[in-house]
Every structure is written in structure tokens, then in C-alpha cells.
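User: Please fill in residues for this 139-position structure.
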């Protein structure tokens, strides 16, 4: 669907956003790293879209077209502007829940006091997963 292109920043956007990495990595290494991450992310998104293609009645503007999405950002992320990026994604993804962990770094789940299961429950993700698993078991 056309909205997918809005979700992922382009390589130039990531290069600009990665000022901290640019200070410690040679330009070629940084560019390679970002391209590889984008390529892997694209492969994952494309395989998911192929496995679960939208129906002809698919309406990307409908909130029910999107599963619940939890967006986590480390407020002290020195590698990428995670709070800005999650705010951008929250504006694009209907029904997304955004949480900024003020003292967390780029690896915001490492050593965090975050109760991820609780946050997933509050965002509706766990209920959505349970329903999908039940649907698969019935078919």
C-alpha cells in the first residue's frame, strides 16, 4: 500500500539523523550500516505484506486497518532522534501508542524499569495478538 513509503525514512534522512554515529564511524561504514538496516527492514515489511496481502476493500485511512502499535523511544538516545521519529510514526499510524522513556538510551529496553508486558496490554497489543491466534487456531 502507498502509505508504507511514509513509514520508513530514506537513507538520506537516516544519515542526517545519525549525527552521533557520524562522529565515531567512517562515512562508508555508517552508510553501509544504515543501508543494511533499511534493506533488512524492507525485507521484513515486504514478506509480511506478501503473507498477509490487503484485500480489495482495504482502507488505509481506517483505524481498524492497523493493528495496535506500541512505539517506544529512549529520551536520552544519542544515536538517533527516537522521540522525534516515534512522534512522526504516531502521526502516521492510526491507533498507535507512544511512550518516551525519559532516561533511557538508544537500547531503551536494556536495564529499563519498563514493564513491557503492561505497556503492551495498555496499548491493546496483547488482546490483538490473542484474537489473531484464536482466529488462526479456528481456521
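Assistant: Residues filled in for all 139 positions:
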Amino acid at each position: 500500500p502507498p502509505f508504507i513509503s511514509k513509514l520508513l525514512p530514506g537513507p538520506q534522512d537516516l544519515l542526517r539523523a545519525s549525527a552521533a554515529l557520524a562522529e565515531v564511524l567512517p562515512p562508508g561504514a555508517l552508510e553501509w550500516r544504515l543501508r543494511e538496516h533499511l534493506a533488512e527492514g524492507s525485507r521484513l515489511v515486504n514478506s509480511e505484506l506478501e503473507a498477509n496481502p490487503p484485500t480489495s476493500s482495504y482502507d488505509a485511512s481506517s483505524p481498524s486497518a492497523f493493528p495496535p502499535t506500541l512505539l517506544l523511544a529512549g529520551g536520552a538516545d544519542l544515536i538517533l532522534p527516537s522521540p522525534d521519529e516515534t512522534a512522526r510514526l504516531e502521526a502516521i499510524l492510526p491507533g498507535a501508542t507512544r511512550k518516551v522513556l525519559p532516561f533511557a538510551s538508544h537500547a531503551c529496553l536494556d536495564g529499563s524499569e519498563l514493564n513491557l508486558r503492561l505497556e503492551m496490554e495498555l496499548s491493546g497489543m496483547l488482546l490483538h495478538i490473542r484474537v489473531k491466534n484464536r482466529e488462526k487456531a479456528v481456521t
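For context: The longest strand covers residues 69-74.
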